[in-house]
């Protein structure tokens, strides 16, 4: 059992960076100055590929630990935890070597599957929380089997864990993001594996939440303070971010804005409400699930526009919330399932010569807010209440205007998480049984802002429907 005066080493395996940071074991608060970051640059191709170099990624992460070691930050570590991007996959040879780069959630390469009329996808979705979509291993593995001769498959967090401990295992949380898990049993789903064309022995073994490993002997000299320290199974970044933001009960929705965005609710897996077709459901740990909706355009949209428009400020200065005449449908990176809008489908409606760069940024952030609001309203209906909302993530931390815009769009008070490293914080909280509070400012919607946004909603939904239709042409 980790002592409260120990510290926690958290490894956060993101799409745009790999990070190692040290947290307090008492409350999962970051230790000032104990953060090392390795920038990740995904490779995108015209064929729809979106990949990461596995060797470069892992070596960069290990370099983060070296940096913390050099700064004397790896002393008194009582636990090592991991938060990781969901959905990644790597094809492996019979010696465990990588045959492919890390294929990320953004990769659109796939094969079509004809399962006939006997396949009941609604029942499959209810059982696994996923759809038969290219995001998941049910479609990834058949595509890889058609182009490679793999002996096994694993995700990025599984291979990082293997590099650290020598054991290729996965958690129920990471496995749920593959779309091959039976959510109720916590084991691989037989039908999902049949669709993928593999047996369980070709995938990482699923270990319980309480499992721990230890670092391999080769790291004893490199990081002597970590010898014998328990390494906990990784948590999917969405689940970790919810808990780290402070959204870990059935009455609270967490809205996190990072590279992408999501709105989710953590709840017990037992007696969970029936899953609507539009929402996904994954696992947090052995006892809890997380239900929500994800969006492909968020912090990436903000970063792209501020660079493209060469704005002096990251904020749409001078533009009132809900006042932009332009309507932006933020499908630049397509949509997540079950919708099938491809990347490159972003649209602006109603542009005029008097629109400024700030107007375009405001319209895009407003469009992203309205997309997230669509998910929040579905979660309200699912759980039978108007949910409390906490906001967290790097995008939330970076933009005061966006925080106020989200609050006005939701038309309810919100609480901001004061800690931007919500994934690492949540992974530590899950491993140690903590319940961190948001700790940030409380926002209330400005009535005039909320009224303007409400006036946009019907027009937005009409134009969004047109954008979806146009994307299919």
From TrEMBL:
Keywords carried by this UniProt record: Kinase, Transferase
Kinase recorded as keyword: yes
Superkingdom: Bacteria
Every Carbohydrate kinase FGGY N-terminal domain range: 8-244
Single biological process term from Gene Ontology: carbohydrate metabolic process
Molecular function via GO: gluconokinase activity
Pfam families (UniProt xref): FGGY_C, FGGY_N
EC number(s) reported in the record: 2.7.1.12
Domain Carbohydrate kinase FGGY C-terminal as annotated: residue spans: 253-431
Similarity comment: family membership: Belongs to the FGGY kinase family.
PANTHER family xref list: GLUCONOKINASE, SUGAR KINASE
Name by which UniProt lists this protein: Gluconokinase
Lineage: Bacteria, Bacillati, Actinomycetota, Actinomycetes, Propionibacteriales
